[in-house]
Amino acid sequence: MASLHEESFVFDAHCDTVLDWVEGRRRLTPRSTQGHIDLPRLKEGGVDVQIFALFVAPEYHHERSLPRLLQLLDAFYRELEAHRDEMILCLTGDDLLRAKREGKVGALLSIEGAEPVGRDLARLRIFYRLGVRAMGLVWNGRNDVADGVGEARTGGGLTRFGVDVVGEMERLGMMVDVSHLSERGFWDVVAVATKPFIASHSNARALCDHPRNLDDRQIKALAEKGGVMGLNFYPGFLTPSGEATLDDVLNHAEHIIQLVGPQHLGLGSDFDGISTTPKGLEDVSFLPRFTEGLLARGYSEDVVKMVLGENFLRVFREVLG
Questions:
Q1: How many domains does the chain have?
Q2: What digits encode the pLDDT tens for the residues 189-205?
Q3: What number of other Cβ atoms are within 10 A of residue 275's Cβ?
Q4: Fewest C-beta atoms under 10 Å: which of 96, 104, 154, 198?
Q5: pLDDT the model gives residue 56
């Protein structure tokens, strides 16, 4: 099992670790007993590529959202510069493979919630030039792009500007992320997207009826578009009780694989953005246990490799170029 995990391409599609950096709570090194992710633990977990989300919390929305995003970007780049011998920024599909080849951790930047874009596509283009290669259209509320799951009562989806944002992201080579998006917004993306999109950190609503999860119709539609969804490790999205173990994560994996096949599933831990973790997946260093769990349930090595990272690698290489 250990050799399989080590040789696999391991890709985690969501963490909120930059928030700790910008607030000065932790850095990439040394190894910490706090939080879920640092460079030593990423290596222990065998992670080849980690998406670092830039989350602008609601208290910064409106006129403070852009300055806050710049603070988050600065914190990320300061850590990247301090650890350039062990981490590289991934801007293209080839960069993802280079990270694995060079034995470094590849870092991808994503914005979680389009509030910093405002109503200006020029900002989106600048974010791309600053290294951002993915964006979640919303968090839980409403912005100029779309409604989030927290606004489901309205039945709102993508705005007209939101349709333009999706089109411009596809033109630039940025990945569209529908996690946190309202159900109406999800179906709007299905209607307008011409490239695969992802749900970076969402689970199966059939197993846990939470609005942050995708129902079977949504999962099938995402798969038909060639997309990938990343398993979220937050216990509240895994079980109705809000208490979870590694087996509950594996249950969601099995449901999705049985529904649409193994080609559309990956990892989206939400580490450092969640207050509790499943027993057995306490931080990123425990990821080999997930590999062990899939093997114990009878999945082939090829399927395990797909879920660990090959699926996200495929879709990001297609979109990023």
A1: 1
A2: 999 999 999 999 999 99
A3: 7
A4: 154
A5: 97
